[in-house]
Amino acid sequence: MSKETIKQQVIEAIDAARPRILALGDELLHTPETAFKETRSSAIMRRELTSLGLPCRDGLALTGLRADLRSGGGGPTVALLAELDALRVPGHPDADPVTGAAHACGHHAQGTAMIGAAAGLTAAGVLNELAGNIVEIKFDMPVIVHTLAHNVAFTRGPVLLARDSRFGDGDFTEPFRRGLKDGQRMTGFADVCTPTGDMWMAFSATLPIGSHHENPEGALPQTVFFCDYASVGNTWHRDNYYRTWFPEEYAPTE
């Protein structure tokens, strides 16, 4: 079977599934859930994938799932990825009235497109003409230091980290000891349980904090906690506060 014939059959199969695909998009649009809480969205995706005859592995990174579409031979494999999470946008016309979550960034369309592609490939009868079976995806997301004008900040992958008063772990104005380098990969950051239900991610880290007088030679590292920057806006209580850039101590000659 020629490449063009395969493409045409897949296109026709997707066109035939148009009503189902559009209905799925509308269902996901009206099932917005924020990161790591996409239980209903994940169940919808599992339903759709299993209905196509694709066995699923779920519970990956809490709410993720994976299905493998086996072809007729070995070779390179293409991974189709879709994000499930929504944003908190209470003013959005399709926002959940309870949580304020809304698919303002279009992740419902990602899921819909992925199922559309899977439907086309499974229904077109072309799998034996394709190659590739197994895909392994790894994400390396170390914590990275950023420095600017005697201040330091930390990111993990695309996520900016913040200290939040809800952790109750001390004074945010204490300076970090000198020595952290811009672009440095940090070790010692560990995932921990979030202290409240309105935080998505939380990490502990043992870091050299405090002035030279308080912590001579950085010999007394302090364990503090960070959350993802998006979570610091999930509460508007006037007593809560957070910080993303932290002061670094000055040398005597500066």
Topology:
Elements: H1 3-16, H2 18-29, H3 39-51, E1 56-60, E2 64-67, E3 87-88, E4 101-102, H4 107-123, E5 143-147, E6 151-156, E7 159-164, E8 185-186, E9 190-191, E10 202-207, E11 222-228, E12 242-243, E13 246-247
Antiparallel strand pairs: 1-2, 3-4, 5-6, 5-8, 6-7, 6-13, 7-11, 7-12, 9-10, 10-11
Quick take:
The protein is an alpha+beta fold and 254 residues long.
Low-confidence stretches: 134-139
Strand content: 15-25%
Proper CATH architecture of the largest domain: 3-Layer(aba) Sandwich
Given helix and strand content, the structural type is alpha+beta
Tell me the distance between the termini: 73 Å
Features:
single chain, 254 residues, alpha+beta, Aminopeptidase, 2 domains, 9-stranded antiparallel beta sheet, 4 helices, 13 strands, 20% strand, elongated
Describe the structure in your own words.
The structure is a single chain. The protein has 254 residues and is of the alpha+beta class. It has two domains: 3-129, Aminopeptidase, CATH 3.40.630.10; 143-247, no CATH class. 22% of the residues lie in helices and 20% in strands. The chain has helices spanning 3-16, 18-29, 39-51, 107-123; strands at residues 56-60, 64-67, 87-88, 101-102, 143-147, 151-156, 159-164, 185-186, 190-191, 202-207, 222-228, 242-243, 246-247. The longest helix is centred in the middle third of the chain and has 17 residues, at 107-123. It is elongated, with a radius of gyration of 24 Å. The termini are far apart. The relative contact order is 0.14.
